Amino acid sequence: MKKDDIRRHVKARKTLLSEEEKLSAAESVFNLLERTADFLLSDRILMYHSLPDELSTRAFIRKWAGRKHFYLPRVNGVNLEILPYDESRLALGSFHIEEPTGSDTTAIDDMEMIVIPGVAYDRSGNRVGRGKGYYDRLLADSRARKVGVAYDFQLVDEIDSEPHDVRVDVVITENHHLIIRKR
After folding, report:
1. CA–CA separation, 12 and 89 (whole Å)
2. How far apart are CA 147 and CA 166, in angstroms?
3. How far apart are the C-alpha atoms of 126 and 106, rounded to whole Å?
4. Is 98 exposed, middle or buried (0-12, 13-18, 19+ CB in 10 A)?
5. What span, in angstroms and rounded, lies between the C-alpha atoms of 127 and 161?
6. How far apart are alpha carbons 120 and 52 in whole angstroms?
7. Tens of pLDDT along 148-179?
8. Is 110 left (phi over 0), alpha (psi -120 to 50) or beta?
9. How far apart are CA 63 and CA 168, in angstroms?
10. What is the pTM of this model?
11. Which of 64, 59, 38, 39 has the alpha carbon at shortest distance from 49?
């Protein structure tokens, strides 16, 4: 399926979700994530601060912030920088997302796990993002475990991928925990 078609379909489906369904889905997904060996063994984790139409990461980050070292991305031009998460050092940034402030950036190589937002995923680990390529550029050289999180309906049969697209290693939805085999 073409990426633009997937984006339209998923966007329309998200508008049908109630607040209760959004909270329940986020709780289910992040309960599954926190029980994985990958999460339990990782200390340095790049998360994302969710937009209103994404699975909310806020409760999960607050829950684990004292026990894990979380990092968040910050938009810098066409790239993402990685900074430590500190709730007291957040400011509204690009695309109306709360981003970390400061100059203490961290290298992507320091991350053990990266939890990635996406519009959709398929069973091969292909991902549809919002179309700007921020995560593909960030993840191109990363060896960290890449975990895509999504609502069940964001898991689609097939995504047309391009050479620059970076696949995820794991996809977690409310009812699925898919470990992707490497090609």
Report:
1. 34
2. 12
3. 26
4. middle
5. 8
6. 16
7. 999 999 999 999 888 888 999 999 999 999 99
8. alpha
9. 24
10. 0.93
11. 59
